């Protein structure tokens, strides 16, 4: 999110520089990012195109033409098609390293972006918005992740809900080609997703499991994990084999900052909110933060131009407008995903049968499936 934030900000600083405070990424990150693949929504792809990033990514991104969602016990299936929303793809899958490299390359071509090392607030516990902003900055965009130091220094509180689950992330080769199909299984023990990569015989896994079960599976050999996922995916792509690297794990939480802005600081992405990964919304929700911030800056800049006034991107009016623009969608997505998680993992007697019946109803109604796809991609609702 840091590079994207810098590129968006650069559009509004024609007479000044954007200082991008970001050290090189730690190759030993503990959140599984290196093995992660992102499902980029159409809005996200559009922004990457606008910022000149997509050119370097297009040949490495795998279009998702359809998604199959399975309920294991009792059995049910829903097919979501890109054609239902008159789209070429529901999403494009890219791996973390490729996305990071393309974003950083784009910043190198932006003349007014200067990359610097990590910014350390002089007093991390100051609880003062001014202490969270580098000296002289007119607007500081905090895109420093779920454990944001800038959020803490600014005194912005947050709530956190622990799902007592971990997401296991790993890549596999497949016996059968994936055909651009993404698949998800609602299993009694957890939620398994396999995302197609650019190679027709490679997929990326995200498996959300209770913490104890996830730790037990992660401790197995890579071959044993591949065998387990082959079975849990019901041989959908044939036998799976490890694609190098290790199985990574990250704890799952829902975090919400009490405010999206303070002083001259705004929060975007995981610094402002985190969500359960069952619908692949995390990165895309952060991009929607940036789109909202960009729209706010454009509107305020145009207003100042009409009034022949100097534009201050960090003015309180800008901060308040941005916060209002995110007031409804962020909690809608967070709690929508939370409710969905409760529904698909709940063990109340009869709930599994109800889930299966509901999915059968959706599968039997093409117009409902079309509405679900369109709503999910527009950010108004959450997908399966």
Residue share in helix: 25-40%
Q: State the end-to-end CA separation.
A: 25 Å
Percentage of β-strand residues: 15-25%
CATH superfamily descriptor? FAD/NAD(P)-binding domain
The mean pLDDT is 85
The CATH C-level class name: Alpha Beta
Please identify the structural class as seen in this structure.
alpha+beta
Number of helices, where a helix is a run of at least 4 consecutive DSSP H or I residues: 12
Per DSSP E runs of 2 or more residues, the count of β-strands stands at: 16
Question: H/E element string?
Answer: HEEHHEEEEHEEHEEEEHHEEEEHHHHH
> Tell me about the biggest sheet?
8 strands, mixed
The radius of gyration is 21 Å
Which SSEs are present, and which pair or pack?
Layout: H1 2-10, E1 18-21, E2 37-40, H2 42-50, H3 54-57, E3 62-64, E4 66-71, E5 76-81, E6 91-95, H4 96-108, E7 113-116, E8 140-142, H5 149-153, E9 158-174, E10 181-186, E11 191-196, E12 202-210, H6 211-218, H7 222-232, E13 240-242, E14 248-257, E15 261-262, E16 265-267, H8 282-306, H9 316-326, H10 329-345, H11 351-363, H12 366-378
Parallel strand pairs: 1-7, 4-10, 8-16
Antiparallel strand pairs: 2-6, 3-6, 4-5, 9-12, 9-13, 9-14, 10-11, 11-12, 15-16
Structure keywords:
384 residues; 8-stranded mixed sheet; 12 helices; 3-stranded antiparallel sheet; FAD/NAD(P)-binding domain; alpha+beta; disordered C terminus; 16 strands
Question: TL;DR?
Answer:
This protein has 384 residues and is α+β, with helices and mostly antiparallel strands.
């Amino acid at each position: 999110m840091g590079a994207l934030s810098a590129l968006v900000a650069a559009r509004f600083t024609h007479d000044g520089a954007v200082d991008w405070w970001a050290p090189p990424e730690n190759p030993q990150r503990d959140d599984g990012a290196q093995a992660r693949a992102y499902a980029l929504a159409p809005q996200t792809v559009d922004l990457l195109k606008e910022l000149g990033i997509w050119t370097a990514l297009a040949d490495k991104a795998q279009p998702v033409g359809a998604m199959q969602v399975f309920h294991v016990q009792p059995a049910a299936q829903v097919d979501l098609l890109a054609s239902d929303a008159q789209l070429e793809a529901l999403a494009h899958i890219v791996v973390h390293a490729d996305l990071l490299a393309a974003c950083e390359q784009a910043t190198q071509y932006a003349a007014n972006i200067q990359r610097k090392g990590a910014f350390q607030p002089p007093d991390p516990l100051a609880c003062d918005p001014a202490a969270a902003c580098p000296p002289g900055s007119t607007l500081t965009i905090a895109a420093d992740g779920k454990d944001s130091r800038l959020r803490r220094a600014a005194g912005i509180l947050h709530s956190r809900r622990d799902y007592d689950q971990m997401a296991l992330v790993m890549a596999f080769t497949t016996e059968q080609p994936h055909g651009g199909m993404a698949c998800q299984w609602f299993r009694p023990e957890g939620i398994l997703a396999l995302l197609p990569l650019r190679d027709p015989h490679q997929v990326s896994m995200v498996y959300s499991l209770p913490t104890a079960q996830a730790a037990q599976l992660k401790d197995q050999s890579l071959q044993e994990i591949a065998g387990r996922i082959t079975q849990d995916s019901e041989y959908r792509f044939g036998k799976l084999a490890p694609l190098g690297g290790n199985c990574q794990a990250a704890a799952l939480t829902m975090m919400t900052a009490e405010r999206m802005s303070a002083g001259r600081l705004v929060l975007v992405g995981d610094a402002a909110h985190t969500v359960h990964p069952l619908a692949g919304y995390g990165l895309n929700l952060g991009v929607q933060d940036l789109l909202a911030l960009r729209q706010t800056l454009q509107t305020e800049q145009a207003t100042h131009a009409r009034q022949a006034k100097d534009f201050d991107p960090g003015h309180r009016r800008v901060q308040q407008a941005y916060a209002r623009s995110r007031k409804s969608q962020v909690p809608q997505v967070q709690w929508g995903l939370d409710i969905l998680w409760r529904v698909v993992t709940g063990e109340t007697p009869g709930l599994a049968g109800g889930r299966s019946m509901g999915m059968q109803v959706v599968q039997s109604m093409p117009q409902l499936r079309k509405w679900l796809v369109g709503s999910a991609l527009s950010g108004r609702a959450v997908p399966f």
